[in-house]
Specification:
Elements lengths: L6 H7 L12 H13 L3 H10 L5 H4 L2 H5 L28 H6 L6 H13 L5 H17 L17 E4 L2 E4 H14 L6 H19 L12 H20 L12 H31 L1 H5 L2
Antiparallel strand pairs: 1-2
Helix pairs in contact: 2-8, 2-10, 2-12, 3-12, 7-8, 7-11, 8-12, 9-12, 11-12
Bound molecules: 2-acetamido-2-deoxy-beta-D-glucopyranose (3 copies).
Length: 291
């Protein structure tokens, strides 16, 4: 790995920097990446293999969560979300001026715009294109997590809830606990087990292929990312913060209602990511063939 930090520093600092709540947990991010790869063209397989130097694509998608708390990548911390300052559950909606442009360091919408452009920039050094591909894959996942598009209660981090008797918070159950309960596979399977569970989840979502007839937005990254963030943010009002999350264990009807939403959004994230990577690799097709 050619990160601009020494390996010993990485080992020393990582355990101290486990984030309180990360994006879609690693299961969700791996699934988005695997699902996208199932929709890749041959050119996209070549491009991603070259830019990721053969690294497993689901592992590559986790990179931004591993570095966001390191000083060298502090600038990337704001890129994982957009804090819509709306009033759920009564009123949801994103205002780019209020929720992103005014925020220090941008947001997930501007980050998607930045990193899709960098991945497509054939003049940029391959190492940096690879790093941007990792960011791009990760943020396509994050923008499809409803609580990454919401300011209320710090995206639900400050809202206590209980799932299966475990006291946690609303953000965390959407990132991690509900996806794990739904698609986590065997408990204690380590990294290999998680990759296997993610592959199985992606295969199921690929099998459904509901949305494949949809024409994905692939022409204008800032407009597409804003459209997705707005679509995902609407779930905060219609479900995530609507009712049924207070004063009861979420393992009943709340969980049952969340699962199809999560399947839908993880599916969309994977398909949209594939559409973008296919568009980028298609433009670059000839150049890649001669490498
Ligand atoms: C968006 O937010 C800005 C800054 O707060 C405000 O001036 C503008 O009126 C808002 N736009 C809409 C459509 O609400
Ligand atoms: C785009 O990403 C690069 C590399 O991560 C970063 O240096 C740059 O500041 C970003 N630009 C914007 C406008 O966010
Ligand atoms: C839900 O969790 C509670 C503990 O909070 C437990 O008693 C109950 O059996 C669980 N129900 C299901 C369907 O898992």
């Amino acid at each position: 790995m050619h990160f601009p930090i020494s390996p010993s520093l990485t080992l020393l600092t990582l355990p101290l920097l486990i984030p309180q709540a990360t994006a879609w947990g690693s299961l969700g991010h791996r699934t988005v990446a695997y699902l996208a790869s199932m929709h890749f063209t041959a050119q996209s397989n070549i491009l991603t293999n070259v830019l990721l130097n053969g690294q497993d694509i689901s592992e590559a998608a986790l990179f931004p969560d591993k570095v966001r708390h390191m000083p060298a990548f502090a600038y990337s911390a704001h890129w994982h979300f957009i804090d819509a300052r709306d009033s759920p559950p009564a009123q949801c909606g994103i205002n780019m001026t209020r929720d992103c442009l005014a925020a220090d360091g941008g947001c997930v919408v501007s980050a998607i715009a930045n990193h899709t452009a960098r991945v497509a920039d054939v003049k940029l050094e391959r190492f940096f294109r690879g790093q941007s591909l990792r960011f791009m894959m990760h943020f396509f996942g994050d923008v499809h997590q409803p609580l990454h598009t919401e300011a209320e209660g710090r995206g639900g981090n400050d809202i206590p809830v209980v799932l299966d008797g475990v006291h946690t918070n609303l953000h965390s159950v959407w990132d991690t606990a509900i996806p794990k309960k739904h698609a986590g596979g065997a408990v204690g399977g380590g990294v290999e087990g998680e990759m296997e569970a993610a592959w199985a989840w992606a295969t199921r979502l690929y099998g459904v292929r509901d949305g494949m007839q949809e024409k994905e937005c692939v022409s204008d990254a800032p407009a597409c990312a804003l459209e997705w963030a707005s679509e995902v943010n609407s779930y905060v009002c219609s479900y995530v913060m609507a009712d049924g999350y207070k004063d009861q264990d979420l393992n009943g009807t709340y969980y049952d209602g969340a699962v199809p939403i999560i399947d839908d959004l993880v599916g969309k994230a994977g398909r949209r990511l594939a559409a973008w990577i296919n568009a980028i690799s298609g433009q670059e097709g000839l150049a890649l063939q001669t490498q």
